[in-house]
Amino acid sequence: MTEIKPDKIIIVDNDPLPKGKDWVYLYLTVDSMTHHLVELSGNTKLPPIKGHFIFPTPQEEYAIKQATTFGGKDKFDSTKFVLKIKVRRAYISMQVAHAYGGESYQEYWLARSEIDRFNKNIDGITTYRIVKNDFIP
Length: 137
Description:
- By secondary structure, the protein is of the alpha+beta class.
- The protein has four helices and seven strands; from the N terminus they run E-H-E-H-E-H-E-E-E-H-E.
- It has helices spanning about 30-40, 60-70, 90, 115-120; strands at about 25-30, 55, 80-90, 95-100, 105-110, 110, 120-130.
- It has a three-stranded antiparallel beta sheet with strand order 1-3-7. Strands 2-6 form a two-stranded antiparallel sheet. Strands 4-5 form a two-stranded antiparallel ribbon.
- A hairpin with a 4-residue loop joins strand 4 and strand 5 (about 105-110).
């Protein structure tokens, strides 16, 4: 009998956050209106969300890719923002990190009902703008 060996073994760490820190950073791509509402909060919390979930990621490069690649529903709002959210590690490590994009990226699926609890575990939000100019009227 021939022994079958896999070509590649992929181990997915379900806790992609840096070890030994009380606070970690998650990144979230948002539209201009959401960004404005975050600023109105003093950069301390996310506003109520439109959809059923938000998908913050521990990987900055993935959030930037989302902002520059995915158009979203509003073609008239071509400016996307990436929020850098400082979150209490004890809170986010209770959530499940889901693999996305061939297991190279991870994101948390936080339901609308979870946003208030998420906000209570935020210690600040910083932003930078990603401009997407692919809409031509």
